[in-house]
Write a structure and sequence with these properties.
By secondary structure, this protein is mostly beta strands. It folds into 2 domains: 94 residues, Thrombin, subunit H (Beta Barrel); 103 residues, Thrombin, subunit H (Beta Barrel). 12% of the residues lie in helices and 58% in strands. It is built from 2 helices and 14 strands; from the N terminus they run βββββββαβββββββα. The strands form 2 sheets. A 6-stranded antiparallel barrel has the order 2-10-11-14-13-12. It has a two-stranded antiparallel ribbon with strand order 8-9. The protein is globular. The N terminus is likely disordered.
């Protein structure tokens, strides 16, 4: 109709319920020791026992993503070097669950080039202390609920507000499958609710494997053609 504003979106968005996922938020950590089977780390944020996390190591222009499960976690304290304030820290043991084939070789090379000394010998292998943790991050899963979704993006609701134009690795759970997506924050609005303050975040899909795109398309086709 004349004068009616056209929908400029590339793909049609669908209202959904019961769809959720995780925004993987990167955080700094200190690696206490590491081997091909796992690592002991120290971080300012608590890691949940028996939960899976992703450790990301930047090494010679390559990002090595290591999935691991927390097998022990303890609370400790240390002094802040600048303020001299005593702050809580969490130490945790992570057992890697996918260091196979080419990942093993990259991890071995990283350890060999960065090791300071042998930390201890174990049945599963030798652990090493490394010189720096500057290029090692851990991804914290921040849960979200999907309100609207299309092939090119989604509107989510989460407890955490995300910085405009920032990019994140995102997990989207659909019908038992996990879709791994790189998304960009295009808008973020703080909203009030009975349960407290939450944020509505618009995510643009930047990169997604063809197999994930097909799973998402099949899901949307089911919604559009019940």
């Amino acid at each position: 109709m004349p004068g009616m504003k056209k929908d400029e979106r590339k793909h049609k968005r669908f209202l959904v319920t019961g769809v959720h996922g995780n925004v993987l938020y990167p955080s700094d950590l200190d690696v206490l020791n590491i081997s091909i089977d796992g690592a002991a780390i120290e971080t300012s944020k608590r890691l949940e026992l028996n939960r899976d996390y992703t450790l990301r190591i930047k090494y010679k222009g390559t990002i090595l993503n290591l999935k691991g499960r927390v097998v022990w976690s303890i609370l400790g304290y240390r002094e802040n070097k600048d303020s001299k304030e005593i702050i809580p820290v969490y130490r945790a043991g992570i057992r890697f669950t996918d260091t196979l084939n080419e990942k093993t070789n990259i991890l071995l090379n990283f350890i060999e080039e960065n090791k300071v000394r042998t930390f201890e010998k174990r049945l599963a292998g030798v652990r090493f202390e490394i010189a720096t943790s500057e290029d090692v991050k851990i991804d914290y899963p921040y849960e979200y609920k999907v309100r609207k979704i299309s092939l090119s993006g989604m509107l989510i609701e989460t407890e955490y507000c995300l910085e405009l134009n920032s990019r994140f690795n995102i997990q989207l759970f659909l019908n038992g499958d996990v879709l791994n997506i790189i998304g960009r924050v295009v808008n973020c609005t703080e909203i009030k609710s009975e349960s407290g303050t939450e944020c509505e975040v618009g995510i643009e899909f930047i990169d997604m494997a063809d197999s994930a795109k097909k799973l998402l398309k099949d899901f949307l086709d089911t919604i559009g053609n019940p």
